[in-house]
Fold each of these.
Amino acid sequence: MTVGARDLELACSARELYGTELHRQRQLARMSLDRLSDVVNYSKTHLHGVETGERLPLPPISEKLDVAFGTGELFQGLWGVVRREHTPRRFDHCLELEAKAERIQAYGSTLVPGLLQTKAYMRAMFRRSNPTATPKKIDNLVEKRLSRQEVLWGDNPPDYWAVLDEGVLRRPVGGPSTMYEQLAALLPLVDTGRTTIQIIPFEAEEYAGMNGTFILITAPDNSTTAYQEDGGSGETFDDRETVTRRMREYDRMKACALSPKQSAALIEAAMEKFKPCEPPQI
């Protein structure tokens, strides 16, 4: 069975064209998604998403597809077109995965992760990143992020683990009072039946993964997806290579971090810097 030029013309975007060509080459090779998954070392779910245009064919999948099908640099060339057309949809897919997650592991290099942010902390960040936004727009952004936090307080919340760099505790986002409130909100979550927070102290020096922000989301079927953010844009990955690398980095981060008890002590020490001044005695 082959797919002709007429089918290719139905694609209305570069991403869909890429997916249509992937389907065509797979049919020509008489290869199932399961078989292709084994050949290129990407999950069947991810490959199906690329075929249907729901997921980006991020490197190195194009090179692997060209090798699998013997297509020279066909898919690498198509990726160049997709990349020029694509406008990243930050967190869209990540939000869907969070809502169904069995376990969430987050790393924050400079900021408190969204699921742990207070309302004032969120507002300060949104104002800084959207300087021309109206108060109503900021309110909408805050409410949307607050709604995300419902996954931690529902009837069946996921196990949540956060590893934070000490720098997160020291940067006064929103000013001293906002930061004091934010750190105080972290303390009850440091070591519970469902939540764990660890801090990597400055004394740990450099460590794997410290130059970015990422989240590992494990679904009920035990599959894990990595969301990583860099330079203001983000994307999800579920290929084995990327997920395995991120999981190993996260394990190393936890090994560098303080215990929950020590982490709580460091959070309390950081709070002292932002503690409101007592009114003068008269």
Note: Residues 55 and 97 are 14 Å apart (CA to CA).
Amino acid sequence: MADHPDPEAVETGDEYIHVRYRDPDDFETIRTPDWADNASDSVSEGSEVRTGKREGSDDWEVQSVLIAKNVGEEKAREQANEIVEKIEN
């Protein structure tokens, strides 16, 4: 999908590599929905997707993707892009 955003930041934490697409401050609500697990786990087992809803909107957008730390930052970025593509298509 050509119109999903590029990652704003890629940071390695204790357990995950956090690939951030949108600023969390832009959202009224952020959740880690169960429905996104199928798409994310089909690309990277154990990954999580955080989605956000902006004030006055009913649409949920991917805020960030968490990928297992052992894959490395470059591979995490690739996998996160593939997950966002699946979800936002």
Note: The mean pLDDT is 92.
Amino acid sequence: MDYRQLFSDDEVRQEFLDRFDEIAAGATGLGGFESVDAGLTVDRAAKAVERMSEGLWVPDDSGLEAIVERFTRPVHLVQKSTFRLPPDGRATSANLTARVERARRPLERAIPSVGRIDLRNHANLTWAGTGWMVGPRLVVTNRHVAETFAREARAGAGSGFAFKQSWTGKVVRPTLDWYHEHQQPEESRFRVTEVVWIEPDHRYDVALLRIDATGEDGENPPPPIALDTSGARVSGWIAVIGYPGQDSHADLADQQRIFDGVYRCKRLAAGRLTAVQGQDVVHHDATTLNGNSGSAVIDLDSGKAVALHFGGAAERSNVAVHAAAVARIVRAHG
């Protein structure tokens, strides 16, 4: 997380300090924050926030980082194609909550068009990541997600792409399920019929998939999410919609604190665009995990996709391919 960006918002910074006693009490009174330092007072938190704002914060074992992230960048549950905060009683920024609530209608339009990529016949994996509708029957995801189940038909021959085979000789079969919502039984599964494109340029972690015209129960696919190809607005508010999965390479205790032990289900995480790298890569500070690969990054004002999330580094930033680059790839290959 880029704390400098987060606490550049004076309202969020002041709210965090004004409510710190409430935040800390709620954290220590519930599961997952047992290691919070009992000496973490509001004065100590104020000094830490100042250092975070200046980019001088050195992580310690006080539990403050998890408290900050849980308060300022919570991860909403998606159920019945709408979203809500987890019912765990922990304090959440009213400033952020108000911003997300104002965007509820455009976010609820986008949610049904984001799905989990499940795998059949794979030797090690039951799912690969997230994908979303970007055109009629056309799904966009990451190159590194598609490469778990697809390859070039003949290396270097330009002859298209094929599904991989498992060690038993069975073909790996990916499907898109537009639900996988926490404690909800609904399914809407669409077979991936074709790997349309895997981008060879490693600057663009993008792949395109084609799905069946109807789902396994005869339903139509959800509508495409419109792409916002205008210039990325640094500090603009966004929401990442996807399927965070527990990450063995990140701090497991912090994950438990922030995600309440709920993984592999559809979630919505709000944040801001923090930087633009070149023309086609953007950074953001929404809370994500490895299953978010391929998630839609939605502008809170327009409800359009501004980027395709593809990765991040703990305690630094998340990175995504700008929608303008996605649009070029869709036009060229979709």
Note: Residues 42-53 form the longest helix (12 residues).
Amino acid sequence: MAAPALPRPLVETTSAHDRRRRSELFLFAAVLVAVASLPFFVKDVYTQNVIVLTLMYAALSQSWNILGGYCGQISLGHALYFGIGAYTTSLLYTKLGILPWFGMVAGGLIAAVIALALGYQLFRLAGHYFTIATIVIAEAGLLLVHNWDWAGAATGIQWPFTGDSWASFQFGRSKLPYIYFALGLFAVTWLVTFVIEGSRWGYWWRAVKDNADAAQSLGVMIFKSKMAASAVSAFFTAVGGSFYAAFVSYIDPESVMAFQFSLLMALPAVLGGIGTLWGPALGAAILIPMTEVTRSYLGGSGRGIDLIVYGLLIMVIALARPQGLVSLFSRSRAPRA
């Protein structure tokens, strides 16, 4: 009689995990090099503008993915944090003369604190009740800014242009500085997600997402896990809003706090793969260029066409590839808890 098969040693499993993590880093480095070299071949200003927006939304979607993908708390109110970053940086620069670099950090910290304050109440809700609450709070924030005279109310804030300068982070015609900053923002959010994914917090978040009651019975601190994910997600979202304000040099409530921004942060992750490292980037690489092409070639006559295409894409992916587009490249890019 043959001896029973012994279980595979843990060291093999750990080794396979380490190889997967290293391969992720090699792929990440290759993507960074490829994107960083694009401006040397792409000279068209319009195309460079699309690259900036794609990288920015890849970073924003990765930020959203920390809370919505890994922790399972689906927020559709992240436009609030985006707007906080944009308005904090703009007000500090135009009213007090504080450089945008400091405004980015201040905006991120303020957004994180507000996320913690809101989370203290919102995380008592679950499922679609939480999602609805995030929408309501974001819309309330939009209305408040609409009527905030010191912040320009509905008129908005125009950044004064003092010439090309890294100090004020303003460049008249060149898109290269914005491309590389957006690439750096994406790189930081990806690396933070990568580190967290392999940490205790990452495992906690995925446990909370899969089954909060079971996770709590095993000693996972549910509330603290959600609060931490919310703060990290809000911080990077606000930094993205600060960058956008510097990039366009003019903001108003509708241009940085409208509901569409919350959707454009969530949809790339949904399309690419929620709770994965590469899902947000892959989704943004498809959705954002499609949005810009729709606006450019259809103009006012095509208003709403991009939303129709979004809906169709999401329905197709939900039916054919529920795990997102990243599942086309491997069995599952999502890590297991």
Note: Residues 46-257 form one domain.
